[in-house]
Amino acid sequence: MESLAGQFLIASPYLPDPNFLRTVVLMVQHDTEGALGLVLTRPINLTVQELWKNVSGEEVSAAEAVLQGGPVEGPLMAIHQVKELGEIEVIPGVYFASQRENIEPLIREGKHPYRMFLGYSGWAAQQLDDEMEVGGWLTLPARKEPIFESNTDLLWKSVAGEVGANIIRESLNLKSMPQDPNMN
């Protein structure tokens, strides 16, 4: 299966895992060894300001919610738009970081949009491919604007709606439909 890195995964009703109900996952990596993604639609009751105070003892003005990136524990991670602080380019102009030296400037300066995550979504080799084969996930090429949408309900609705519209458009086969409906 081709790499899903740089795609949005939208959990379908065929995915029984409650960790992913009504989620949009940004796929950061996907290869033969496994996959890593971050859930964009699971804010937790913690702001970046509170988290940073606990982690570093520093006061910063960052009222954004921290997101639960998935059910797997891991380091603090960020998605952002600063090339110099990026470890992986997820899509053009959007970067992933998990190293403290790359995350600190994002939080301290607060000049550029970013999303902070605790935990991540991880899949072993072939696991995500198997979930895809049984219809567990719908996909959509990731775009910058939805990634930084702060209203997670709006994010899920817009991305899921776009996937639904694409499915309907493909099933209608509009290319072979005559211009004049009377020709049907």
TrEMBL record:
Coiled coil: none annotated. One of its GO terms (cellular component) is cytosol. InterPro entries: AlgH-like (IPR003774). Gene3D superfamilies: VC0467-like (3.40.1740.10). Pfam families: DUF179. Belongs to the UPF0301 (AlgH) family. This is UPF0301 protein C5Y98_04565.
